[in-house]
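Slide 14.
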Amino acid sequence: MLSKEEIVKSVPQKGFIGHPKGLFSLFFTEFWERFSYYGMRAILIFYMYYAVKDGGLGLDREQANIIMSIYGSLIYMSGIIGGWIADRILGTQRAVFYGGIMIMLGHIALSLPGGVTALYASMVLIIIGTGLLKPNVSSVVGDLYSANDPRRDSGFSIFYMGINMGAFLSPLLVGWTQKEWGFHAGFAVAAVGMFVGLVVFWVTKRNLGLAGSQPTNPLLPGERKKTFTTFGVAAIVIAIIGIVTYMTGHFTIGNFSLLITTLGVLIPTIFIAYMYRSPKTNADEKSRLLAYIPLFICAVMFWAIQEQSSTILATFVDTRTNLMLGDFKIEPAWFQSLNPLFIITLAPVFAFIWAKLGERGPSTPKKFALSLFFAGASFLIMVAAILLTGTGALINPLWVVLSFFLVVLGELLLSPVGLSATTKLAPQAFAGQTMALWFLASAAAQAINAQLVRIYELVSETSYFGVLGGISVFLGIVLLFMSPMISRAMRGIK
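Slide 15: predicted structure.
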């Protein structure tokens, strides 16, 4: 196995604005991958529930929202398997490339008039492809730098900007294309975006040197047969269960969503319990794990609200918002550009504030509490908009813009802080695996959303937004009061 020093030495260390040359490859690969994903996601919900005469599939709106939530949850869950495949079989470079190919094929499937069958086939391809690409491309970025390289944090910040630039531009372009030429043309733009990303990666991958070229923990010859046999048996069992439930009429979207919701809650619960009970976890680490639990729960609450931007809020924009500016119509998909736009604008401001405050800044639990206040406010502002506008009337789109703005303030308080806290609170023996736990918070949130979207169709909009917003604020208050106790349990970690 290659050493860290050998890998870093093989990478051209200058060539992209003072950073390793390989950062150029990864920046634009991720730019185009996120361009393709967020472009597709910006119009997918509308494609599912728009009438066939309008170019959609004509699905029930509740069913469309459930499918979107399941889809999002499985995408986050797939990163665990994708990371394992890279670590043990492919290496991160090949995992990224093969993942990109599957994502592109998924978008191509959507760009063809294949109906619901093509929709589900594309989702399977994109879930597998994103699981291979998303966690591993970030890992390759880390391999470009030595552990003590002062450029490392800056490099990840540049990489993060690439993600948000792609996510900002794609809904605008894909949404406009869908407006002019239909949904399949919009999905074709997403496919072309991923193709460009693959070309960039392939042409410039020599800049990566040996970074990600080999599995970090490859399967030994004796392990291969046992592992592949286990996976094969599991696949056959799952297939049999699927066939039996389908033949007996029990394989429905509702039942499948309940399964995903159950897994979304159970997997992180079992994961935390396993680490806590492990003899490799010492007393201080057990205390830190206990401190992490309320943070994790609050993260699930936050992402449950934030991730509804592509489901409940997207349908609200489409059906309950005045999108006409004179004779010009604002496309609903364009609202999906607000989140990355606000992040690009505000992330440097938050970085400056934390640097300025230094030790005087709020603790990690207090930042999480503040993030829940902003998330709750983003839904409570929707209640105010509906009440002030009048029941059934189309609301001013600026209310929705304000809602997106508030939740982004919360995201900047929680997302980077949560990543950092996860790495610092992780037991040493589970340092790598604990990063997967952080992403499982988003998976759990989306899995829970698969049930929440059912409630949205049954209650009034003010009740839905008001109750969820109120719960978020309440949890924020609870966390604020618990923060001194949580900070003590973190045993010196801030």
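Speaker note: The first helix runs from residue 4 to 10.
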